[in-house]
Write a structure and sequence with these properties.
Helix content: 40-55%
Number of domains: 3
CATH topology of the largest domain: Rossmann fold
Number of helices: 17
Radius of gyration: 22 Å
Distance between the termini: 39 Å
Shape: globular
Order of helices and strands: HHHHHHEHEEHEHEHEHEHEHEHHHHEE
C-alpha cells in the first residue's frame, strides 16, 4: 500500500468525522497527512466542526498510531482505495460527498468499469419482482455490463445473483465492515462475488457493525458508481427511493421496472414514473435510454452456467432461487418458470439430497 494510506486508515479508525468533513480538511491542507496532523485553528475553519467535535477528534487521534492501523489492515488481506489513487472511479469523484477511502476485496479492475447499472429495490420483494428482474438482467448475458447493488436481501441479492449466473461483473457496496457481512444470510453470496471476479467494498472499517445510519450513506456510493439507477420494486417508504433521489441529485439517469398496480411494493415505482423516470420492461429499454452498445465479456475461468455438476439445469435453477430467499412452490413457479408438478419432483430430490429444507408455512430454503 502507499505510505499515505496510513492516514486514510487512521481517519477511518477515528470515526469522529465522516468523508464530507475529511474532504474539506483535505482541500484546505492539500494532502491527507496534513489533514490528519492539523491543529485546532484549521479544524475551526471547517463548517460543521463544533468545538466539542474538534476536541473529540484530537483526543481520539492521540490514541491512534497510523502505522499500526495500516499494519492491521495489511494483515487482514483487505485492500484500500483512496481518493487520490489513480484507480479512484471518476464518476464517484463527481458526487457532492465522495468517500475518501474504500476498503475492498476482489477485482480492482472493476473500479474502472464504465457500463455500471445500480440496481435497487425492496428487501421484501415479490416473487414476480425477482423473476422480472432476473429475466431482464439475463438479456445482458456475457456482456460488459456491471451490476452495482447493496448486498441486501430481496432485489439486491437477486441482482447480484443474476449477474453471477449470466457472467456479468458485479459490485456489492456494504453498509458494514467487510469482516461483518450483513445480512449474514448473504455471506455465501459475498464469497461467490469475490470468487467470480466481482468486487465488494465499504467505506467503513473492516470490523464495523451494520449500524442503521450507515445504509443511507452507503446508497450514495451505489448510485455514485453508476451513470444510471434501475429501481425494481419499491414501496412509498422504501430505502430504494433514497437511492433514487440521490441518483437524480447526482445528475444520473433514473429508470424503473413497472409492476402490478395492486402490489404495495410498486407504489414507489409509479410515483417515480409519474415524475419522469424511464420505463424498463426489457434489456433493450435501458440500452436505448443510455445509448449503450455493449461488448462481449470474456467468461471467467470460474464462471459456469451449471453451478453444481451433480444437479440438472432445472435443479440448479431451483436451488439458486432458494439461495436468494425462502419461497413457496407458487413463488418458485413464478421465479423459475417451472410447472408445479415438475417442481414437486425437483424439491423432493433436493430435500432428500440435503440441498434444501422445508420450513414452517410451506416454504423451502437452501441449506
Amino acid at each position: 500500500m502507499l505510505i499515505n494510506h496510513k492516514f486514510y486508515v487512521a481517519f477511518a479508525s477515528n470515526e469522529s468525522f465522516g468523508s464530507r468533513i475529511v474532504k474539506k480538511l483535505y482541500d484546505i491542507t492539500g494532502d491527507i497527512q496534513s489533514a490528519w496532523e492539523c491543529d485546532l485553528s484549521v479544524l475551526y475553519k471547517i463548517e460543521g466542526i463544533t468545538p466539542q467535535k474538534a476536541d473529540n477528534f484530537l483526543r481520539i487521534r492521540d490514541k491512534i498510531n497510523p502505522d499500526e492501523e495500516l499494519e492491521k489492515l495489511e494483515e487482514s488481506g483487505i485492500s484500500l482505495l483512496t481518493y487520490d489513487d489513480m484507480d479512484y472511479p471518476e464518476l464517484l469523484s463527481q458526487i457532492p460527498d465522495p468517500p475518501m477511502w474504500l476498503y475492498f476485496q476482489g477485482n480492482r479492475e472493476l473500479f474502472k468499469s464504465k457500463y455500471n447499472v445500480a440496481v435497487v429495490g425492496s428487501r421484501k420483494c415479490s416473487a414476480t419482482g425477482r423473476a422480472t428482474l432476473t429475466k431482464i438482467l439475463g438479456e445482458y448475458k456475457n456482456s460488459n455490463l456491471c451490476i452495482v447493488s447493496g448486498l441486501a436481501l430481496g432485489i439486491d441479492a437477486t441482482a447480484h445473483q443474476a449477474a453471477l449466473d449470466n457472467n456479468l461483473a458485479t459490485i456489492a457496496v456494504l453498509g458494514s465492515g467487510l469482516k461483518k457481512v450483513y445480512p449474514s444470510k448473504n455471506k455465501t453470496l459475498f464469497k461467490n462475488i469475490i470468487e467470480n471476479d466481482g468486487l465488494v467494498l465499504s467505506e467503513y472499517p473492516i470490523n464495523a457493525d451494520p449500524i442503521a445510519f450507515h445504509f443511507p450513506l452507503r446508497n450514495r456510493i451505489v448510485s455514485g458508481l453508476s451513470p444510471c439507477t434501475l429501481v425494481a420494486e419499491a414501496a412509498l417508504k422504501s430505502g430504494a427511493l433514497i437511492t433514487a433521489r440521490l441518483c437524480l441529485e447526482q445528475n444520473r439517469e433514473l429508470m424503473c421496472i413497472p409492476g402490478a398496480i395492486s402490489n404495495p411494493a410498486t407504489e414507489g415505482i409509479y410515483k417515480l414514473l409519474k415524475e419522469g423516470a424511464g420505463i424498463v420492461t426489457c434489456g433493450d429499454d435501458l440500452l436505448n435510454i443510455m445509448g449503450w452498445d455493449l461488448n462481449k465479456r470474456q467468461p471467467s475461468e470460474k464462471f459456469s452456467d451449471e453451478k453444481n455438476e451433480n444437479l440438472s439445469e432445472n435443479e440448479n435453477k431451483v436451488l439458486n432461487a432458494l439461495r436468494q430467499d425462502s419461497l413457496t412452490i407458487d413463488e418458485l413457479a413464478i421465479n423459475t418458470g417451472l410447472q408445479a408438478d415438475d417442481l414437486m419432483i425437483i424439491l423432493t430430490g433436493l430435500e432428500i439430497a440435503d440441498y434444501i429444507i422445508q420450513t414452517e408455512g410451506g416454504n423451502y430454503s437452501a441449506v
